[in-house]
Amino acid sequence: MGGRDRQRQKKRREREERLRRAKHERRYGSSPGSEPSEPEEDLSAEDAAEQEQGISPFLWESAIRRTQLLSAAWTLPGRGELKAGLQELSQQDEEQPEELLPAEPASRAEIAKLKRQLKRLRKRSLDQEAELVELLLPPGPEDEEELSRRIGTLEEAVGRWEQLVSDEGLFGNREARLWDQGSGRSYLRSRKALAEALWRAERIEAALPHLQTVLELDPEDHLHVRWTQLGLHLEGGGTARARAVLDQMAQEFSTVAVWGRVLERFLVGDRVEAARALRRARRHNSLVESVLVPIEEDESLSEEGDRISSETIELIAHLGRAWKRHPEATRWLQDGGRETTIEARASALASYVPPVSSLLSIGEPKLGLDWPDYRALYDLGPDQIPELIRLAVDPAVHECESDSLEVWATVHAWRALAQLRAAEAVGPLVGLARERSDDDWVTDELSEVFVLIGTASLAPLRHLLVDKDASDEARFIAAYSLGQIGERDPSTRDGTVHTLVQALEGFGANSEFLNGILIGELVQLRASQTLSLIERAFASERVETAMSGELEWVREEIGAPQSPWVDPE
């Protein structure tokens, strides 16, 4: 692994807390704590041991098998649910209030008959689901003979439930959705299970029609058939088919979808888009990477890494075999998921000429705002602005080895651009904020760069702040920069407040972290007219108070009298 990617990997899970505390102390003089969100599911001791090592080749099969079982089990009623369902059926008559039943004996007898029929139908549905639990979950690894027997059993089950669904008149019945019927669910699940068994038997072309049929009969895709299709195509190298499935999932931001896009782009040889997709996938679920590739000896998982989310389990269940089949993809991940090759990086470094090339040999800069005078020390002026912009955003330089001098040249370049007040650098640097907001140096320093450049930064930053597709870190850079410019240049204050309000009005969809940042900037600008909106955001319980301060503090600091506020509880 090279470049600052190694540092990003080790720091990623610490970054948000560090940002919260450092920025809050800098703005408000205190550092309130906050409770981290809890991942969804604890690992067992065996799972934790595998997680600590990453899924190395000898652990792939057991990991995939276990997670496939968990994934399948989550779509089925458990034993407790089955028992509870049967108890509910037996108690149903007793729970029916007497006064709600018709007085006429004939009507009451008719209702009782209908209720008995309903009870039989529901019990049959539960019995079918119970049988399916046993059918879908194999006890362990299957050899070729066992897998062949299992395929035969599933084919019989599909035929049996298909006949039952046909007898009940459910095929082609637009009034009765197949998924809503017990027999229909069993039919869909068994047919998907058959497709997966055929997949394990390397009979991919035989598996595909079953998956397509299930999807046509259940267009809402309750069983995540598209995830299975995606894994099957990626494992077999069918990138065109995989891309078609991803296009159908264009509005889906599940872990399976975003990490599937990474593998698909890598397999077609588009390293640039693969790297960009990887950065988005890391922001979506950073745990996946520590599962797909072994963790290095000097790295350890944070508290979050000691657990594994259901989304990560789903990814291994559906895409684990595909990642295993393409070890070159996991090697690329382990090397940092870079978009440039060694040759491209060497060529890029050789393309810079004096005086800009002198920045390549400075090395690691000092933290903080006490920057050297790049204009005087390195003879940089307006004529060098285009080359400095190229250096600041050059992916080849960003991806140099972490122990090299050259990797730090990007930082020196954007500092020089700030000192030169290079307005033409704003657009490319905003693009850098979008693409590399997972880089600590980007999130820590670009705000000051934009502030020094001044009002030329306003329009691109306002667009970035209200862009819901941008990462929280990128929008944080925009919010903080706008707030600072608004404080230093009163003529920009009203426009900045308007943009901050526009972003905060989406507090229901925003992260708590972003809402806290936005409120913090409004407080700094003493935007008392926004207090009502701020109170609504607090009432929604979607504000990170480590970034904004508590509501009473906000009311006091924003310069407005306390107004009535009703606790949502």
Number of continuous helical runs = 29
Share of helix among residues? 55-70%
The rounded distance between the terminal residues' Cα atoms is 49 Å
Indicate the proportion of strand residues.
Answer: under 5%
Write down the Rg: 29 Å
Q: What's the average pLDDT?
A: 79
Low-confidence stretches: 6-13, 15-60, 73-83, 92-102, 295-307, 561-569
Describe the model.
This protein has 569 residues and is mainly α. 64% of the residues lie in helices and 1% in strands. It has 29 helices and 2 strands. The protein has a two-stranded antiparallel ribbon with strand order 1-2. α4 packs antiparallel against α5. The two termini are 49 Å apart. Residues 6-13, 15-60, 73-83, 92-102, 295-307 and 561-569 have low confidence and may be disordered.
Concise account of the structure shown:
The protein has helices spanning 5-28, 45-53, 60-74, 79-95, 105-136, 144-167, 182-200, 204-217, 225-235, 239-248, 255-267, 271-284, 287-292, 310-325, 327-334, 342-350, 374-378, 385-393, 395-398, 409-419, 426-435, 440-453, 458-465, 472-488, 493-504, 512-524, 531-539, 545-548, 551-557, and strands at residues 41-42, 307-308. With 569 residues, the protein is an all-alpha fold.
